[in-house]
Amino acid sequence: MSVVLAGDIGGTKTILRLVKVTQDQDCPQLKLLHEQNYPSQDYPDLVPIVKAFLQEADYSGEVRRACFGIAGPVVHNSSQLTNLSWSLDGTRLADELTIEAVTLINDFAAIGYGVLGLQPQDLHVLQEADPSQKQRTDAPLAVLGAGTGLGECFLISQGKQTYVGATEGGHSDFAPRTPLEFDLLDYLKTSQSLKRVSVERVVSGQGIVSIYQFLCDRHFQNHPNKGQMLTAETPAAAISNAALDESDEISQKTMEMFVSAYGAEAGNLALKLLPYRGLYIAGGIAAKILPLLHRNDTFMTAYLDKGRVSPLLEDIPVEVVLEPKVGLIGAAICADQNV
Predict the structure, then answer these.
(1) Is residue 135 part of a domain?
(2) In CATH, what number is assigned to the domain containing residue 41?
(3) Residue 220 and residue 108 share a domain
(4) Which domain holds residue 215?
């Protein structure tokens, strides 16, 4: 058993947790001791936030390890946050906070660790597989998640340790599969003056908006509701909601294309890794559009449409992550692994 400090550090807010971690045979058991949110912009650095948090928590025991998920690149345990003037370094933070070790990881890597601590109620099954698959130690897990961008990572186990491999898979090429998707590719290259189009430009929140704009400009030019969703405060959410309640034809077609492209990319990641222990769909979008993932079985049809190797993907469990704070769970697990 250990008590660790976990954090989710973003340009808008910082969320900190004090967590007691107990190792279980199947997965770590986490008990939340204290949690607090802070407006990141109100502080010159992470250190005063952590000091205030620990004082508020009124915890007199020892906190030996901390891990913070960072919304930005982390190189050699250091990070220059994109939307803040903070320059964070694990060694400096450990010294100033009098904590034995501080680990900085990318926020999607934190989500990767987080899947290890999820309970059945935190997941929605898209494809079941033999339960023994999740007990395999010779196969990786894979995680992808569309939100602001498209994150992808994998997990491998060595003995009692699990390691997350961060990737930039979301920046690989978008591979169109249908005449409509080829038209979308051409539209994105032309309208945005791009030499190539990454899959993240299609499978993300901004991708939803781009698909909608494409359909309005090239396939629904005379539709009476053309462009209506672009006036919303958050167009991607408006398009998704209109598709969910079937109130707008263009939005429905937009989300059909989005979900299909999402499923296809999930299948691509599964082919590259063969994650027989599980493929997890995280990010801020999937859990909010579950009915669209199931509608006409669009997601799984695209996931499994891999020609002669399609049967390989049928043995991989596929689940959507429902827990919104999976990154904080992961930061706690990462910190505990190093105790």
Answers:
(1) no
(2) 3.30.420.40
(3) no
(4) 169-320
Q: Which residues of 292-309 are buried (b: 16+ CB within 10 A; e: fewer)?
A: bbebeebbbebbbebeee
What are the 10-residue block averages of pLDDT along the chain, 339 residues in total? Answer: 93 94 77 95 95 90 93 90 88 96 95 95 94 80 95 90 90 97 98 96 97 97 95 97 97 98 98 96 96 97 97 96 97 86
DSSP state for residue 173 in the 8-state scheme: B
| Cα Rg of the chain (Å, integer) | 21
> Whole-angstrom Cα distance, residue 200 to residue 167?
13
Let me know if residue 149 belongs to a domain. Answer: no
Residue 138 has a pLDDT of 84
Burial state string for 154-187 with b = 16 or more CB within 10 A and e = fewer than 16:
bbbbeeeebebebbebbebebebeeebbeebbeb
Q: Is 14 contained in some domain? A: yes
Q: Rounded to an integer, what distance in angstroms lies between the CA atom of residue 110 and that of residue 117?
A: 11
